[in-house]
Amino acid sequence: MTAELQATQPTEAAAPATPVARLRHPARPLLGLALPLLLAGGWELVVHIGWSNGRLVPPPSRIITTITDLARTGELGRHISVTLARVGIGFGLGVAAGTLMGGICGYWSLARRLFDPTVQALRAIPSIAWVPLFILWLGIFETSKVALIAVGVFFPVYLGLMGAILSVDRKIVEVGRIFRLSGPAMIRRILLPAVLPAYVVSLRVGLGLGWMFVVAAEFMGASEGLGYLLIDGQQLGKPAQIVAAIVIFAIIGKVTDWLLEIGTAPLLRWQDNFARTGGAA
Amino acid sequence: MLSLQSLGKTYPNGVHALERFSADIRHGEIVAIIGGSGCGKSTLLRAIAGLDPASQGSAVLDGESITAPHARIGIIFQEPRLLPWLSVAANVGFGLSDLPADQRRARVAQALNRVGLVEKAKAWPRELSGGQAQRAAIARALVTQPEVLLLDEPFSALDAFTRKDLQDHLLDLWAESRPTLVLVTHDVEEAVVMADRVLVMRPHPGRLFEEITINLSRPRDRTAPLFDQFKRHVLTALDRSLDRTMPEAQGRGDAATAMWW
Lengths: 281, 261
What we know:
The structure holds 2 protein chains of 2 kinds. Chain A is built from 11 helices and no strands. Chain A has a single domain, classed as MetI-like (MetI-like fold, Orthogonal Bundle). Helix content of chain A is 79%, strand content 0%. By secondary structure, chain A is an all-alpha fold. Chain B has 2 domains: 2-72 and 147-260, Rossmann fold, CATH 3.40.50; 83-145, no CATH class. Helix content of chain B is 34%, strand content 23%. In chain B, the strands form 2 sheets. A 6-stranded mixed β-sheet of chain B has the order 6-7-8-3-9-10, sandwiched between helices. Chain B is globular. Chain A binds chain B through residues 1-3, 6-11, 14, 171-172, 174-175, 177-180, 185, 189-190, 193-194, 196, 270-272, and chain B through 49, 51, 68-71, 74-75, 77, 79, 81, 83-86, 94-95, 97, 123-124, 126-129, 131-132, 144, 159, 161-162, 165-166.
């Protein structure tokens, strides 16, 4: 009787929190937009009334014009798709290699003792330092760019997955042992779901690094891509084009991260985290 | 019959946790193992479960030596250890993955009903209270219908009311199919209310100190004078087991060991 009374308490406390969080939800992104919109509007006004000519820091209207002009000629679409393809392939390869190596080294301690010191040593090298070597080895075109992105993505995924496997609670693994799970069943039913949250975080970190490295890759002699737009804007003195490319990088980076987040959300619905319960808000 | 034959355990770090522990546990019997901390009672239970096999001796279930987790032996830990990514119903059915889905569903529904968690079937483990989570763990262990159920201080993390509630509940469940229960506890009242026999252990290294048969009829009245008498009996044995100046009850109190203490 008493147990029942106490038992219902946490659920009662949890239940009203969800609708409130849902109500608050639509208003939240708008709040986050307030500051950038205020700054952009302010700068627009400053240039408009002539306090600044906005030559080096173009006002939002000029950036929008640049973007629409680029879009109208179809040039923007081409640059975006080229960059997206590079990030996509590099990310895919980096994730595949990072997952494979991270999984093997996390699960199998012999492999970890064998490979991990080397991988950690390689990780200490700033990835950009590979660029000259990659160009010598793989040429100036796509392969070296994709390789650089893949290297950037590999490390966070490798580390994230291996660390997650190593930190799986022994007590949970014991539950699998009690029910006499075979090796593959143990991986599928215990380890995989247990490491998933940390793995998703590592994928998102990896994707962020992928976007970082595509810029570096496109700085080294690309003829198209958003990174090329940056370089081109610098060389021809078109700050609006540079800012336009930056804005597009920000938007696409955010959108891909968001896609990754909502794509994995159904798998992580069981998590009881700070953000989901409304945090301190 | 579950026969514990001279079980001993020395961990790789040299800790001598258990020494020559022998006991025969009849089918359907409830045995409580009680003792101070570090007396090897959890080590003993994990050896019977096949999780950490004993370094000497063996646990034998109906002629079969236990060296790894066994289908006929279930275990309930101090923590519920529910898998957080599975619903309560999926947790309860975790050990039934070999069954066809409809049979599994029926067995899970029945088990949830028995522990009074039907309305929580679709909840996540995090939405349960401590007592509910432990009941879900009991359902998960019982749903595979083990012949021996090992319990490692299963109620020690719960508040007094929930603990008493679950003790009575577990006894009701036991009465339905009468599995052998081996209950590790440090709660004297829990031992006396549950067990047919209480095995008192003494530490460093863990070994059997005294065996007390509780011949009280069930259901047991916790306020009866006789109940109190048994409690006092176990307490006294427990006190003596921790008293390092006392000679051992099993007659190995020679000068050498006395000095070792």
